[in-house]
Amino acid sequence: MADRYLSFTGTAPGRFLTRRLGLPQPAALKRHSPEQPDLAGGLLHLTAGKSDLGLAPVLARTNLPVTDTDPAAVVLDATGIRTIEDLSEVHSALHPVLRSITPSGRVVVLGAPLDPADHHQAAAQQALEGFTRSLGKEIGRGRTVNLVRLTDAEAAESTLRFLLSPKSAYVSGQVVEVGTAPVTTPADWNRPLAGRTALITGAARGIGEAVAETLARDGAKVVVLDVPQAEADARRVADRLGGTALPLDITAADAGARIAEALPDGLDILIHNAGITRDRRLVNMPAERWIQVLEVNLASVLRTTDFLLTSGTLKPGGRIVATASIAGIAGNAGQTNYGASKAGIIGLVRSLAPRALADHDVTVNAVAPGFIETKMTAAIPLLIREAGRRMNSLAQGGQPIDVAETTAWLAHPASGAVNGQVVRVCGQSLLGA
């Protein structure tokens, strides 16, 4: 459904009226397209504290020219911050340039892991999290602010490329930790998934369809899985993308075995997107509504993941990306079942990620969408829908492509050092952390 308020605020009368009334003034976001794959402007590299990160070669490969004026992106290397006094350098570095950042621009702050042996360093580095999230809520004009904790610039290249691109238009206020696992650099950054097979559940429509399209764009052979009732739509999507359709009820006890049978050459990327809602307040919720949501959204994910890992169907170097939700982080009235299922996904990711990487060389991450413009949200009553759209730092709903682009980054072969992360795709929702 079209966001008429966003369209109205883009007109002269709309800007005047909303300014006078103190209403939100969302900026139309500039997303990735073949015609505009990069940010429209240059990159400004700043440093706070003493750093030996060796960041310059990685930034040079982002396709953004170095600039001193009107940057489209600002990277502040604050990995050397160790004391509260050092934090003054964060202010002095960013304060003079914030107004000059172009609309839909990016600010990426780089921090270091917290040192358990140095509580002064830990306090100063944790301060960057509150700073980043606060700046994201005030910067405006469609610009985003994120924090990346890292020790190895090369391991963070895929993350920096994503956050410094139009692909991250609806990702703001996030803290991403990048480890030091070996990274596979793709032969072609424009088609990094070439030669890889990706299975997407619930891919016949909506967000799942957008994920399949994006992974296919990046070179993957996609397997479009959906329930047998949606087989016609699944085949339509698969045929359009040069992939294959797999009609299957993901809650079936043998779903994992049937996926493995359909993929004798193995699987590189597993995207758990299938999900349902059966909303009702707990006091009015019959047991079958509770069971259905937990079964589809969580139990099936656990069963199929376990089978595909232990059977070796998911190959070394593989990626698992599951779909959580801000409902699993902040909760939502009428969605105790859904919130429980999506919080369970977060628990799965945090527990499984280190073991899957150590035992199978597979990363496990999650995306947590906020208000995304889909047929499901279009059915929400008008006032609630408008509240959902406006209650984030970008003052608008996201698009399925925003979730898809974030998923593609986590599925990237060069994202091997990104593991155990839950990344909200919510425009920095005012709900939740």
What does this 3D model show about the protein?
This protein has helices at residues 4-9, 12-21, 56-60, 87-94, 119-138, 157-163, 206-217, 231-241, 255-262, 287-310, 327-330, 336-360, 375-378, 382-390, 400-411; strands at 43-49, 73-80, 106-111, 144-149, 175-177, 197-201, 221-226, 244-247, 267-272, 314-323, 363-369, 422-425. Helix 7 (206-217) packs across helix 15 (400-411), helix 9 crosses helix 10 and helix 10 (287-310) runs parallel beside helix 12 (336-360). Helices cover 38% and strands 17% of the residues. The chain is α/β, with parallel strands linked by helices and 433 residues long. The chain has two domains: 31-177, Rossmann fold, CATH 3.40.50; 197-425, NAD(P)-binding Rossmann-like Domain (Rossmann fold), CATH 3.40.50.720. Helix 3 (56-60) links the parallel strand 1 (43-49) and strand 2 (73-80).
In short:
The chain is α/β, with parallel strands linked by helices and 433 residues long. The chain has helices spanning 4-9, 12-21, 56-60, 87-94, 119-138, 157-163, 206-217, 231-241, 255-262, 287-310, 327-330, 336-360, 375-378, 382-390, 400-411, and strands at residues 43-49, 73-80, 106-111, 144-149, 175-177, 197-201, 221-226, 244-247, 267-272, 314-323, 363-369, 422-425. This is 3-oxoacyl-ACP reductase.
The fraction of residues in strands falls at 15-25%
**Tally of distinct domains:** 2
Q: Helix count, per DSSP?
A: 15
Low-confidence stretches: none
What is the total tally of β strands? 12
Classify the helix fraction into a percent range: 25-40%
Shape verdict: globular
Give me the secondary-structure category.
alpha/beta
Helix-strand pattern: HHEHEHEHEHEEHEHEHEHEHHEHHHE
Which whole number gives the mean pLDDT?
95
> What top-tier CATH class of the largest domain fits best?
Alpha Beta
How are the strands of the biggest sheet laid out side by side? 8-7-6-9-10-11-12
Radius of gyration: 21 Å
Largest sheet: 7 strands, parallel
